[in-house]
Design goal:
By secondary structure, the protein is an alpha/beta fold. It has eight helices and twelve strands. The protein has two domains: 118 residues, Response regulator (Rossmann fold), CATH 3.40.50; 96 residues, Winged helix-like DNA-binding domain superfamily/Winged helix DNA-binding domain (Arc Repressor Mutant, subunit A, Orthogonal Bundle). The longest helix is centred in the middle third of the chain and has 17 residues. The model has no long low-confidence stretch (mean pLDDT 87).
């Protein structure tokens, strides 16, 4: 049974969401404010559903704090629905953002998608290759003698490439997996991420041995076991 931490202070919504999530066979715990959420959160949870405007510590700060130690999927639900609000939520490390009022079926579908995505992702905490080491829990990498802190999206793309090492991954698959079907970045966006990875990790970025691009096809993280 998947376990969900619901962080929401609106009693009527808590009751509706808890009832419907439990009907879908999820185990639901409720935190009524941000401080309580951080006190309750640990690795037992498979998903966090998080309101933005909650007492004591707001949802953005709760998300940021969780992301320091965990990659557990986070779904924001909020009446704050401007583009800047969504961007802020995603920059803080959230996996999805749903604006209130929302359709209950849509929320349940997004929950399924996030849980399935997390299940399909191999849980890697530390990965080493060459002279490089990636710590997926702290977001830090040791690369070419330097210590860097990467963004969540950079870590997500690295994780996807590593879990499918030596396989070619199409641009469409990367866009769907990392940005989601409702986002519209260009393939050039992925190129820029790959160029950054080469700067971070490759001994000679102009002649990459790890991060390969196949023109018109996709990308590959190449490494010998």
């Amino acid at each position: 049974m998947k376990r969900i931490l619901l962080v929401e202070d609106e009693e009527s919504l808590v009751n509706v969401l808890t009832l419907n999530l439990e009907m879908e066979n999820y185990d639901v715990d409720v935190a009524l404010n941000g401080a309580e959420a951080l006190e309750m959160f640990n690795s037992i949870y498979d998903l966090v559903i998080l309101d933005v405007m909650i007492p004591e510590i707001n949802g953005f700060d709760v998300c940021s704090e969780i992301r320091k130690t965990s990659l557990t999927p986070i779904l924001f639900i909020s009446a704050k629905g401007t583009s800047m609000d969504r961007i802020t939520g995603l920059k803080m490390g959230a996996d999805d953002y749903l604006v209130k009022p929302f359709d209950l079926e849509e929320l349940l579908l997004r929950v399924v998608i996030l849980l399935n995505r997390a299940k399909a992702t191999i849980e890697i905490e530390i990965f080493s290759f060459g002279e490089n080491q990636i710590n997926f829990k702290t977001y830090e990498v040791e690369a070419q003698g330097k210590t860097l802190t990467l963004s969540k999206r950079e870590l997500d793309l690295l994780r996807l490439l590593i879990t499918k090492k030596n396989e070619v991954i199409s641009r469409d698959e990367i866009l769907d997996e990392i940005w989601g079907k409702d986002k519209f970045p260009t393939s050039r966006t992925i190129d820029n991420y790959i160029l950054n990875f080469r700067k971070y990790f490759e001994p000679n970025p102009s002649n990459p041995i790890y991060f390969k691009s196949l023109r018109g096809v996709g990308y590959k993280f190449e490494i010998k076991d």
